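Much of what follows relies on a compact textual record of a protein's fold. Each token is a code from a learned vocabulary of local backbone shapes. The record below shows the convention in full.
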Amino acid sequence: MRRLYATPCKQDKDYGRFARYYLAHCDQFDNQYSFHDALAHLIVSLRTSQFMLYDDEDGNLQAYMQYRYEEGDNTVFIDSTIISPAYRSSRVFYRGFADWARNVMEEQHGIRQVRFHVRADHSYLNRLYAKFAERISERESFGRAEYVYETTFDELLRYLRVAISTKTGD
């Protein structure tokens, strides 16, 4: 399996690449997810979120993570992630998640909690996320049930084997 290389989304061209990838792959969230829903999500999230882009060796975008820092409670919320099917593997997941965690350590000091959500009917992801996070609530989104998971940032770093001693701030 080839490696993906993580870079934060910073320039207009990065946001354009993300938007094109998102629109091309957003049906992976749900086959009922409409183009209109995707555009509305982009309009809101481009102003309120951060994005980590993952390119293959040829510079083609193959994955992204969308996240935002929640004010006042030292929490980062992972809003969405898509990985191209050819790159879905445990190795890519762990490396990509670890790259993102290192970026968060550099980008925002004092993060204590990580939250994210997943479709309740996605058994594989629910089993995976339960290995390192606790399910704290359930919500409805686009007419389907989703579980919200939470873990401490330090626990996530341990799970991903990211050296906590590299953490700055605090």
